[in-house]
Specification:
The complex is a heterodimer. Chain A has no helices and 11 strands. Chain A is mostly beta strands. In chain A, strands 2, 4, 5, 9, 10 and 11 form a 6-stranded mixed sheet that branches. In chain A, strands 1-3-8-7-6 form a 5-stranded antiparallel sheet, with no helix packed on it. In chain B, strand 7 and strand 8 form a beta hairpin. Classes of the chains: A mainly beta, B mainly beta.
């Protein structure tokens, strides 16, 4: 079983749609949680950190449920420019490198006109 | 300011050859990570540096892989006797603080390695 699991999609949605991505993680010792965005043949870039209280950044809302070890990302009013792969990422499970990132396989989103 | 840079951007090599991949982190960043991204495997951690030390090498897939960091800055990832399964994009990331769980990591553009 992978440490971080995501629905790989692809998700194909029209502009203006609301789309939700889910992710589960297996290591209950994980401390920090993120969504990264990766455009085709580019490096991953941090989209947002995820907190237990939930957090919002414009059209993006992230939620964390530590009891269920579940992370979500909601994108409202999708734009063409949101087309990318969204990576669910956790860190801080201990050992000698708390900053080591563990990535999900990524969810592919395509927003069409 | 300048971000993380990596060189070369692309490398094609023959099976059995050695390759060196370079990472220049953001100036002043003490933590440096190497990851690789291959088809079917996603993004995988390879090694973590804090300064010039590598407290976590747990992700290196075999003893053909090694890395060093000098002067708390540039890092080199070396793959000896390359195999076709080493073909991947090798990504370097750095962060400003001590490698904590909540630190933001900034990624370089990667080196695309193809082993023929």
């Amino acid at each position: 079983r992978k440490e971080v699991e995501q629905d790989p999609g692809p998700f194909n949605v029209p502009e203006g749609a609301t789309v939700a991505f889910n992710c589960t993680y297996s290591n209950s010792a994980s401390q920090s949680f993120f969504w990264y965005r990766q455009d085709c043949r580019k490096e991953p870039k941090l989209l947002m950190s995820v907190y237990s209280s939930g957090n919002e950044d414009g059209r993006f809302t992230a939620q964390l449920n530590r009891a269920s070890q579940y992370i979500s990302l909601l994108i409202r009013d999708s734009k063409l420019s949101d087309s990318a792969t969204y990576l669910c990422v956790v860190s801080g499970a201990g050992g000698t490198s708390y900053g080591k990132l563990t990535f999900g396989q990524g969810t592919i989103l395509t927003v069409h006109p | 300011g300048a971000g993380v840079s990596q060189s070369p951007s692309n490398k094609v090599t023959e099976k059995g050859k050695d390759v060196e991949l370079r990472c220049d982190p953001i100036s002043g960043h003490t933590a440096l990570y190497w990851y690789r991204q291959s088809l079917g495997q996603g993004l995988e951690f390879l090694i973590y540096f804090q300064g010039n030390s590598a407290p976590d090498k747990s992700g290196l897939p075999s003893d053909r892989f090694s890395a060093e960091r000098t002067g708390g800055s540039v890092s080199t990832l070396t793959i000896q006797r390359t195999q076709q399964e080493d073909s991947a994009v090798y990504l370097c990331a750095s962060s400003a603080t001590s490698g904590g769980a909540s630190d933001t990591q900034y990624f370089g553009p990667g080196t695309r390695l193809t082993v023929l």
